[in-house]
């Protein structure tokens, strides 16, 4: 049987066209859009100002389902993690990180990742596919439901970051569509500054990103010379540091208020010396940059150790006070529920292994 198209896969223009093709007026599409993205209704029947005939038509032709929650955990520090089961039984994770002045939702763009960065657990996952627009938007809608976050004047999710599982620029088409939905000011209404796309450095796509999406950009740099970056972030063999940074130097519209974030994972004895910090400053000088140091989060089987607190502080001071580039240290959040950077999916992989073990046993 043919599956219905999910309504959350439509951009606003597509929904408009769909409704017009049903012989309805333009304003109906606006009403439906508002129900979906301002009121957050979970069924067509709740769309009370839409005629019953149209509601029935939509109901029989389109899917309007939330993602299936397989697991939901809350850390002692308030971080929340959802494990969603997709229609093909694959699983993705989404994390909410509350802070005093904001709430950040970290979303996935792929199931697993093809890029195998040697310090990232997601990169070791064998199963990979791109998420659809509906699955990307679905993570936000489900988190908004869970957090009761449908009051636009009092938002809990203020920022959205593509820093979950996957390389968003390898799923550019669906990620672009989802971002267009997020940005729509008659719907979810997130501003470009509040959406951050983190990439390991897919240079040709970075070059068109600015013109097409213009959201905030984070680059997973992690090393200051190609030999080490080739090992940590193997995509570097294709687009080495110099090429990556040249693309960013000319990245338009970047200024002091809107700098590019460079993520730098702190790995003991690998990339964390004072000389590395000095070289980092030199490399980033031509760019409006800020640095975000990420203490390495271990996962079962990982071969690296996190740098000591003192090393991280010295590194940050070198970049910041001597180098003049803003450097922040990202505090690990939700470690007790394996929700910190690079730990995503480990829990579910472990759970599925247990399941397999049980099946064999029985
Ligand atoms: N694929 C994209 C976005 C997802 S990863 C990218 O690589 O940018 C989000 C950030 O977490 C990246 O900077 C990534 O390098 C970092 N990360 C991955 N594994 C980590 C780990 N074990 N500890 C700390 N940071 C990690
Ligand atoms: Fe993929 Fe990013 Fe992990 Fe590298 S760090 S394997 S690009 S998710």
Spatial sequence of strands, sheet with the most strands = 3-4-5-6-9-10-11-12-13-14
Compute the number of structural domains.
Answer: 2
Average predicted confidence as pLDDT: 90
What is CATH's topology name of the largest domain?
TIM Barrel
Oligomeric status of the shown chains? single chain
> Can you list the ligands bound to this structure?
S-adenosyl-L-homocysteine, iron/sulfur cluster
List segments where confidence is low: pLDDT < 50 over at least 5 consecutive residues.
Answer: 346-362
State the name of the first-level CATH class of the largest domain: Alpha Beta
Number of strands: 14
Q: What structural class do the secondary elements suggest?
A: alpha/beta
**Helix fraction?**
25-40%
Q: From the coordinates shown, what is the CATH architecture of the largest domain?
A: Alpha-Beta Barrel
Alpha carbon gyration radius: 21 Å
> How would you sum up the major sheet?
10 strands, mixed
Strand content: 15-25%
C-alpha geometry: elongated
So how many helices? 11
SSE pattern, N- to C-terminal: EHHHEEEEEEEHEHEHEHHEHEHEH
CATH superfamily of the largest domain: Aldolase class I
Distance between the termini: 33 Å
